[in-house]
Design brief:
This protein has a single domain, classed as TIM Barrel (Alpha-Beta Barrel), CATH 3.20.20.70. It is built from 14 helices and eight strands. The chain has an eight-stranded parallel β-barrel, surrounded by nine helices. Helix 5 runs parallel beside helix 6 and helix 10 packs parallel to helix 11. The protein is globular and about 50 Å long. The structure holds 1,3-dihydroxyacetonephosphate. The site of 1,3-dihydroxyacetonephosphate has 15 residues, from strand 8 and helix 12.
Length: 301
Amino acid sequence: MDTQKIVQNALAAGYVVPAFNIPHLPMMEPITRAVADEKSIGMIQVARLEWEKFEAESLEKVAELYGKYKKPGYTLLHLDHVPVVDEDHLEVDYLSIIRRALKAGYQSVMVDGSRLPLEGNIAATKAAAEIAHAAGVPIEAELGAVMGHETSQQSIPYEEIFAGKMGFTKVDEAVRFVKESGCDWLSVAVGSVHGAIADNLLDKKKPAAKLDIQRIAELRSALGIPLVLHGGSGIVESYITAGIKAGIAKINVGTELRQPYERALRETGSVEAAQESVYTRCRELIRDFLHTAGNAEILNK
Ligand code: 13P
């Protein structure tokens, strides 16, 4: 399967490629099964903070498990957020993490320099893009601030973030960023917020997020590359549909599957029961929310 072609096909056909996070390793099996049973394309992805702060163990462990449960024709393996500066404001040896992921067989990778000023983000992304491209792998980058992971920002009411377009990706900066960094897909800040990682918020419902559809359309026409939406859980459905039409070609979904897993495990003590609740929710999302059921054939062409 050609990841770059699949995401390009999604953009051209008005579909989205969902990318499901694996904060707990037993989530791998039900998610790959749900994706294949719905005949959808779906990425399996893990972010650095999921092996640092949740239970994904390591990128290599996720790749190994993916090798066991992957569904050829339906699933792909992606490395989510490798921050250059992380949520605790610490510098990360991001290039060596990306090198490890390429060695482990990841089919696309993300570098997240969005906590840096524009120049620094461009330089960091360019360095990562050179490594990924030398391995023939597409790279996603981020520009703008998708709110949520930083505890200080969690106290700002959502409506205030949206009304003030706080951290939203600016079109002129994005044009320069893509041209100079060489990234293939761009994660944009247009109204969605990341799922919480603070202990007291893990099980809370996310705010019903909206999207700035006009900004998405402007970014798409100015950049001409696939746009990525992070914080895919909890967005109002009509905005998702409009956002995909406007140019979102990959969407990251974490909390929508993590919460059912953790809840079922807490209530039943059974990993199998928790896996089944992930399977059921993942199929619902694909069918009723993302509308990608049955699109594998079209996107693989
Ligand atoms: P949610 O947890 O809000 O779905 O966000 C996931 C995400 O963006 C991972 O990069």
